[in-house]
Write a structure and sequence with these properties.
The protein has about 100 residues and is mostly helical. The chain has one domain. The protein contains three helices and no strands. The chain starts with about 30 loop residues before the first helix and ends with a helix. Keywords: Plasmid.
Length: about 100
C-alpha cells in the first residue's frame, strides 16, 4: 500500500522507538515542555506522531505507545495494542 498523507492508516508503525525518540528513546532528542505538550495533545486527539528517524514515513512507536495508553485509560480501547487500535479505527469508519 502506498503512503497517503491524508490517511495515516497507510503508514507503518515502527517496531520499537528509535534511539532519539522524544518519548521513549535511549538518548531522546531534547524538546521544550510546551512542544512536548503539543505532541501529547495531538496523540490524545486525532493525530499520530511521525518518526523523525524514518524521515516521517512511519508512525513513531514511542508516540503510539503513549497514545494507546491514553485511549485505554479513557475507555476507547479494551487493550493498549495496535490490534485494538486498528479494530477501533475500522469500527469507527464503518459507523460513518
Amino acid at each position: 500500500m502506498a503512503l497517503n498523507p491524508n490517511d495515516l492508516r497507510t503508514y507503518p508503525v515502527q517496531e520499537k522507538p528509535c534511539k532519539t525518540c522524544p518519548f521513549e528513546g535511549e538518548n531522546p532528542v531534547p524538546i521544550v515542555p510546551e512542544r512536548y505538550a503539543d505532541f501529547i495533545n495531538n496523540l490524545a486527539g486525532e493525530g499520530q506522531h511521525l518518526c523523525h528517524s524514518a524521515n516521517n514515513k512511519a508512525i513513531c512507536r514511542g508516540g503510539r505507545r503513549i497514545q494507546l495508553r491514553i485511549l485505554k485509560a479513557i475507555g476507547m480501547l479494551d487493550e493498549p495494542t495496535d490490534e485494538a487500535f486498528n479494530q477501533a479505527i475500522n469500527e469507527s469508519l464503518t459507523q460513518e
